[in-house]
Amino acid sequence: MNQPEPSRHVSVWIDAAPEAVYAFASDPRQLHRWAAGLADPTLTTATVEFAPVNAFGVLDHVVTLPTGESTYNPMRVLAAGTGEARCEVVFTLRRRPGTPDAEFEADAAAVAADLATLRDLLQD
What we know:
By secondary structure, the chain is an alpha+beta fold. Helix content is about 30%, strand content about 25%. A hairpin with a 5-residue loop joins strand 3 and strand 4 (about 70-75). It is globular.
């Protein structure tokens, strides 16, 4: 059996309540404000389907492009601790088979930039 391509976890700490971060990040109406790739006008027919609303901070989502290609994106909002008003947002970037190193690095940089934008919008 072939081994899957490696994944990379990209994360950012946000000084805001995890519940507030989850509520904002899971709201499809807010995606254009922090997820630059999904705000691209050429992707206006792309769809994003999030995991059902949950109390665990799971923001897994599937992005389906106009071509019909779908990508599963694991994502979590992790509380810093009980009662703490800060959290870590972790996005697992999955490397598609055949993706060149430079493209994977560019994808990781784009995810990091999106998470930084999310932080900047939500930080107290």
